[in-house]
Prior knowledge:
With 178 residues, this protein is an alpha+beta fold.
Amino acid sequence: MEQVQQQETKHGVYFANLEAYNQGRMVGGWLYPLDYETLGGFLEAIKQVTRNADEVAVHDYDDFPNMGEYPMHDELYEMIHAVNDSHLDNEILFKFMANQHDYSSELVLEAEDLYMTTCDNFKDFAYDLADQDIEINVNKEAQQFVMNNFDYEGYARDLQHSYYVIDLNNYDVAIFSQ
């Protein structure tokens, strides 16, 4: 079996032999896709752990979103590797994908492309963006007047429709362009 040294991150998947399960027996085991350098090695490990089952089901996920009982094994492998290789935090990626109602390695790449920043709240992001726009588009003499009379709250409310804003567990938000 082509296995590499175990990674720090888990991303485990419990694969089960469905025929044995339906007969009241547990045949299967935990596999960690990051432990395998190739998809072929991972697929072979699934065969071994389920004893060459005709039907394989996923019964549990560890440190990874639930992709259901019957995910495509190659897509699962590719996505876990894409998540591991991403510069974005796992929570940000998983919440972005959940917001899109899809889990795939392509969506990991899309999240990386669309990601803008993480901040305390969207209003702070919008206010900073408004100040930048005012500094760029308004002459120096009028900038302070415009900033003092600008409807920042209305601007933030309208601007939020142009971004994906995802609440994070630490009360921050992740902001993505659309």
